[in-house]
Automatic annotation (TrEMBL):
The chain crosses the membrane at residues 46-69, 125-150, 162-182. PANTHER family: ALKALINE PHOSPHATASE LIKE PROTEIN, DEDA FAMILY PROTEIN. Coiled coil: none annotated. Signal peptide: none annotated. InterPro entries: DedA_domain, VTT_dom. The keyword Transmembrane helix applies. GO terms for cellular component: plasma membrane. Residues 43-147 form the VTT domain. The keyword Translocase does not apply. Keywords: Membrane, Transmembrane, Transmembrane helix. It comes from Neoroseomonas oryzicola. This is DedA family protein.
Length: 183
């Protein structure tokens, strides 16, 4: 929260967003929300910073999983209590493909788990990159839109019901995929 008030807050927002996608435990929402509330006219720019730096951090997470899974990624996943995440991710990816990234990237589930597991599972990098960009943009721009539309009143709602908001968006994406596939 202190970083959100810092003169170089945008730099720190990008740094936190980058790190959260590969190793850091705190999501950038903790900075994005107060910064966007303080400057609603900057909400879109702040969401763009989060999106770009989160995807770049996701590339680092993917590389950790791809090249250094046993040396670095496995201890990180174990430290966060997600040692079985790779096996679950591989199973989900076999069943659902790229939709896994789209859904998991929207939710407050630590995105680093998705990025590291995608690399360890040797997921197609272009698919990983495209789905990461879509899902992270959806997440951060959804927050920015809520803040611009409802202002400070939405802060408590976001803090208490972020999982509901992002899960609803994820369900809408799944329904969209199903509609495209079966219609």
């Amino acid at each position: 929260m202190l970083l959100a008030q810092h003169p170089r807050a945008r730099f720190w927002l990008g740094t936190v967003s980058f790190a959260e996608s590969s190793v850091f435990p705190i999501p950038p929402d903790a900075m994005l929300v107060p910064m966007a509330l303080a400057r609603p006219d900057q909400a879109w720019r702040l969401a763009a910073i989060c999106t770009v730096t989160s995807v770049l951090g996701g590339i680092l997470g993917y590389a950790i999983g791809y090249f250094l899974f046993e040396a670095i990624a496995q201890p990180i996943l174990t430290a966060y209590g997600h040692a079985d995440a790779l096996a679950r991710f591989e199973d989900w990816f076999q069943r659902w493909g790229a939709a896994v990234i789209l859904i998991k990237g929207l939710t407050p589930i630590p995105y680093k788990i998705v990025t590291i597991a995608a690399g360890a599972a040797k997921m197609d990098f272009a698919v990983f990159l495209a789905t990461s960009l879509v899902t992270r943009a959806a997440r951060f721009f959804l927050l920015a839109a809520l803040i611009r539309r409802y202002g400070p009143a939405v802060r408590d709602f976001i803090e208490k019901r972020l999982m509901l908001v992002t899960t609803t968006a994820a369900v809408m994406i799944v329904l969209g995929f199903l509609a495209l596939r079966y219609v």
